[in-house]
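Quick start: what a row looks like.
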Amino acid sequence: MDYEEIGDLISDIKFQYVETGEWAGTLCARLLELTHHVPLMVGRRRGIAADDLPDIIQQAYQAAFTYLNTLDDDRTFPRYLYTITDNLCRKYWRRRIRAGHQDPLVTEDGRSTTTRPSAEQFDGLSLREDLRDAVGQLPQMYRETIELFYFAGLKAREIADRLNISTNTVTSRVRRGRMLLKELLEA
């Protein structure tokens, strides 16, 4: 995936939308071409029914474009799209569980599957959501470091280079961020 090209496309799309009030069709089509595998992969991994997967993908792109201006770094669009799709999949399963659906799902290739989350897995989803909310409540410097370290998988040296700080500062922020997260989650 070419993150630089994606970043340039997002910048151009935003600019054209501000200038004309309309989405740039060819630029949006190219962006979809470059990123279509992201929501598809998430939906398949989360066991979304083949009939419902196109709806999830469409909702993910609609949400992504609605809040496109909130991206700090346009190159992170695939991660942004991943998160949106993941949240939509969680909502999908919550609705199915609350509605009491016990029928097996049919995947895109026609196979039957029972990959819906169990009660324990559903509780795990709630814990992840609590963690995501807690990370969002951290002060900017800790949140940014925690996200880069745990979610983006960068090493301390890479984070230090990116943020223009020392490796020791990165380590301290990760440690302090974890302590703050623990406090937030225990409250």
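That is the whole record. The longest strand covers residues 105-106. The chain has two domains: 1-115, 118-187.
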